[in-house]
Design a protein that fits this description.
Helix content is about 45%, strand content about 10%. It has 3 helices and 2 strands; from the N terminus they run αββαα. The chain has helices at about 1-10, 30-40, 55-60; strands at about 15-20, 20-25. It has a two-stranded antiparallel sheet. The chain is globular. The model has no long low-confidence stretch (mean pLDDT about 95).
């Protein structure tokens, strides 16, 4: 199950920030809700929207922004 979810995140352009933490600079709330429903993982996945991230410049480079 975890592998399938990871593969989906990768396909949608997410990058691994650290173990079990995936990031994207794009609006993805609908996608996450769909994945939670499709995989039946409701409370097992936590969705966070952050306004600021430490070392933001490095992440911008990662996403070519």
């Amino acid at each position: 199950m975890r592998r399938k979810i990871r593969n989906e995140l990768i396909q949608f352009g997410f990058e691994k920030l650290q173990n079990s933490v995936w990031i994207t600079p794009h609006d993805c709330e609908e996608l996450i809700m769909l994945l939670k429903t499709d995989f039946g993982i409701g409370k097992d996945v936590l969705f966070i929207v952050a306004d600021k991230v430490e070392n933001e410049q490095e992440l911008r480079k990662l996403f070519e922004l």
